[in-house]
Amino acid sequence: MNPIFNEYIEFLNDTNKTKIEDLKEGYFWLDKSIIKGFDKNGEIHKFYRVKIEDDLSVSVTKPKSGYDNIKDVDIVSWKDLIETNKNHLKNLEDEALKFIEEKVNKYKEYTSIIPVSTGKDSMVVAYLIRSLFPDTKAIFNNTSLDVVESYKMAKNLPNCEMMSPNKGFYQYVREDGMIPTRFARFCCRIFKVGTMVKELDHNHPYLLWMGMRNEESNTRKDYGDEVVNPEWGKTCWKGILPIRKWSELDVWLYTFWRGLEINQKYKYGYSRVGCAIACPYYTKSTWVLDKYFYRKGYDRWRDMLEKDFIENKKWLIMNCTLKEYLEVAWNGGTYRNEPTEEVIREFMKYNGLKDFDLAKQYFNKNCCECDKRIKDKNVLAMNMKIHGRQINKFYCKKCFMSLHNLSEDDWDNKLKSFKQNGCNLF
Ligand SMILES: [Zn+2]
């Protein structure tokens, strides 16, 4: 649940077909695409639903049941909520400060460090730690995928060291053709903790104060006060979680109450601030914000995806069109089981194929020997070149080479000569 700021209201009014007159900053909350608010009794009401279509168009609707009109509800502001929750917030703060002191005493020989992402949780933790120990150093793990607003915040945070990777995310994409998906991603490992793990002394006892909370996810649900991240490898570091029991609402109300700096991305309507644009875990509701607020980055990433799709002939892997790939399919697995006619026609157009039935032959083929899916257009073409265009049995490269007793060089030479002779299968 995140507070709704003017920037997000403006976005909704710009992208939705009709203007929503009764939204204003200071009152509303966005919870899983539903706009909500609290009344004087602390009851929560639903007002609108934000729906993002596959083509990233936006509609704000009021479903018939379970939703209220804003004018019918005595809605309370964020300020009022802070007032009514002040004792609760004060208790949370007192407990957290006591907790921090206890841990510092327990781990006297450790050096405290605050890893900040500029997200709301780590900003609260940094504030709490530094209200007791003002000189505690912070570090910002530069993922090379953060937005300028986050970098600025980290730079302006006193005593905060920026830790940057030697090779950035987009360099991996450009130089190594690495596109992350939900099922195969290289970036979390390299960028999320990798830089910190490389830069900090493994043999030094560090106490890392982190903002993880139990309610965030199933994996975080069971975290206790102290954690050791396996991705740190062999170190003698310890992670301490001073706000693990706080709810998201607690964090926001506390942030407002104490006047802590808020990352601009939250104001745009993002629920997370890390890894912009290319993180495969994001979905439509984030992409539509990227497209609106970070158009350059959005377009740049899609240019890279487009190049990769065409070069690697991903029609054959994804069974989708280029447009579908760029809009919704790029971060997942095969988009549909069978290619549509449109997919096949587009594949023909980009690859100079004239015969529809022949083009269809390239899709959804598994090796008849080892059952491996054949995704490489050259391998499919080689099968048809040598065994005939009407075949229904295909071999993967390895099985094909062993069938014809070919070496890797033989394969390459054949491929080269067929291409040079202008064979339209390749
Ligand atoms: Zn095979």
Describe this protein's structure.
With 426 residues, the protein is α/β, with parallel strands linked by helices. The protein has 3 domains: 76 residues, no CATH class; 183 residues, Rossmann fold (3-Layer(aba) Sandwich); 62 residues, no CATH class. It has 19 helices and 13 strands. The strands form 3 sheets. A 6-stranded mixed β-sheet has the order 8-7-6-9-11-10. A hairpin with a 5-residue loop joins β3 and β4. The model has no long low-confidence stretch (mean pLDDT 93). Bound molecules: zinc ion. Zinc ion binds next to α18.
Give the second-level CATH assignment, the architecture of the largest domain: 3-Layer(aba) Sandwich
Q: Based on CA inertia axes, which overall geometry fits?
A: globular
Helix content: 40-55%
Number of helices: 19
Radius of gyration equals 27 Å
Beta-strand residue percentage: 5-15%
Secondary structure layout:
Elements: E1 2-3, H1 6-15, E2 29-31, E3 34-38, E4 44-52, E5 58-61, H2 78-84, H3 86-106, E6 111-116, H4 120-132, E7 137-141, H5 148-156, E8 160-163, H6 169-176, H7 187-192, H8 194-199, E9 206-209, E10 226-227, E11 238-240, H9 248-257, H10 264-268, H11 284-293, H12 295-311, H13 315-318, H14 322-329, H15 341-351, H16 356-360, E12 365-366, E13 373-374, H17 377-387, H18 397-403, H19 408-420
Helix pairs in contact: 2-9, 4-9, 11-12
This protein binds zinc ion.
